[in-house]
Amino acid sequence: MEHLEIELDRSSLAAHPALSRHLIEVPELPAIQLSDRVQPIARRAWEERARSEYIGVMVVRRFHGLLVDVNAPMDLQELALTMLVQEQQHAALCMAAARSLGSDGVLRFDADELRQARTDAPVDLQLLEMIVASYCVGEVVALALIQHSIEVLPPSPYRDLLRRIAKDEVLHGRLGAPLLALARSEEGGAWLDYPGDEAVRRIAAREIEAMRNRDVVEADEARLFEDPAAYSELVAVGIPPAEAFRARYFEALDDEVPSTLDRALGDGA
After folding, report:
1. Beta carbons of 29 and 100 less than 8 angstroms apart
2. pTM of the complete model beyond 0.85
């Protein structure tokens, strides 16, 4: 499998007076020294957040392209572009935290993660799969997790970064239900061939099953939380306690995701 190394850096133009006002303000967090056991785990956690957000840029870019291909309304295309920029900004914020913990800013990706290639399926079906899998399942869980993290973490510059990201994630996590409802309506039928609710539920079930089989928290990170001193260090730099984080992940899959689908498909309030 082909791998790519990407440096999430900023150029000198980021300080140009005519350009800087159009860019997100990325804080310069002071370097922080943790214990030898905790430092690499905390750094990796923020690097993985940056990785996830950068992959999110590519996911939304594909989503926008599919919206264009089916001639979706311009407001939907605009929302996709808004989310794309937000994902880019989130990656920069997460990397600022990782750098404060010693990261060199270079992340390794599988090439396919960044290319987000189209499949041979009809464009309408590819778009519907993205609406369901990404915005009715994945982003719903992501919103629940970042909100949970903010609730359980103590005040710190790292929690402040999560709060900034969470303001955008509300859009990402709540887009799915109204967009799916629109797609299955007569209005949506003008630009998307809707295959029926059973097909939607099959797509959702596949994504839910895939997410249930993921490693929610790295094993070495979870073990560190068993040590009180390491626990204190981790939460101080924005890493939420592993056991409760894992429990919230599955709770979101069991509760928020079905509620999202029910609202979209007219089966809930």
Report:
1. yes
2. yes
